[in-house]
Amino acid sequence: MDSNSNNTIKRKLVDQLVQGYEFATRLQLLLSHQHSNHSTDQTRIVSGSGSVPGDLDPVDELLAKILGSFHKTISVLDSSDTVADLSVPIAVEGSRNASCGDDSAAPASCNGGDSVDSRKRLGVSKGKRGCYTRKKRSHTWTVEARRIDADRYAWRKYGQKEILNTKFPRSYFRCTHKPTQGCKATKHVQKQEQCPEMFLITYIGHHTCNANDQTRAKTEPFDHKIMDSDNTILAETIAQGHVNVEVQEQEKNISSVTVAGAGMVKEEENNNGDQNKDYCEGSSTDGDLSLVWQDALMFDDHQHHQNPYYHGKTSTIAQQFSFIDNDQLSSLFDSYCA
DNA sequence: ACCATTTGACCGGG
DNA sequence: CCCGGTCAAATGGT
């Protein structure tokens, strides 16, 4: 194929799509803002990546569809030299095989299926620890933010590590919905040395869970701009808090720019006791079921002490925006810069 | 009692 | 072998 002309066309298409997507997103935000004036307590869906819970009103639904279309189209364009069919989900390359690490039965090989329920004492069943298949590389991108809950997803911390030559430990989070939906998204967060109030948040993979739809962002009027020079995207959101997040493309990816207005403590709520069971259906029905956020100020210097996490109640809620699914945009920019 | 976090062990890539 | 990433028992909070 003539890769040159191909690229040009692709580029133009992508250009248009990105624009369209952005407009749609803005529209959505505007509308949602209006909405929020009416119904104050409901969180709204933001980027409907296709699946729309039946709870939405027509406008939301329509917007979700529009966004979904852009999303899919972009992803198709993006993911392809070979045009795939539109049913291609959000899943993009990185997460295909290599990422089997989590959702597929990867660990099984280690466990040998002995899912020991009874907790054994340390030392007895050491063998299983750290047993996993390492992901090769899914999409990653890094965000610099003042708040670590700079996104609208619910995360659960699963580890923390001292990193060589760094003052602050790195914390590892995975999507809360991993057990229930097999969502592969993870992130790690590290306090910046030079600027301790800033966190470097690296996202790995994208969310495949849909539970967040209901609880996603509460949209607010905002204004963002994207600059795709140098593989660096700068987004500014003017929400209620001054936020300024810088997203750096790393390894070809990016773009969800998320901002945390004022919130910092998120808490996962187990509305009905077992989040592990099947809450996910609830996401569409249980009104709020909000993913409660749990990230916290754990990175404060005293994290080793007693309650680095604030468990009580979520006092403030992070606000953020995403214009497009990270993977899509990312590779999209990738093709731009290429 | 349940659940999220902590923390040390383990694994695999470089 | 080192180091980053993940697992899972233990711990602590609610």
From TrEMBL:
Sequence ranges assigned to domain WRKY in this UniProt record: 144-212
- Kindly list the residue ranges recorded as spanning the membrane: none
Q: Which UniProt keywords apply?
A: DNA-binding, Nucleus, Transcription, Transcription regulation
**Compartments, record wording:** Nucleus
Segments carrying the region annotation (Disordered) are 98-117
- SMART domains, alphabetized: WRKY
Entry's Gene Ontology cellular component terms: nucleus
According to the UniProt entry, its GO molecular function terms are: DNA-binding transcription factor activity; sequence-specific DNA binding
Record Pfam families: WRKY
Q: Which protein, by its recorded name, is this?
A: mRNA, clone: RTFL01-11-J17
Protein's organism:
Eutrema halophilum (Salt cress)
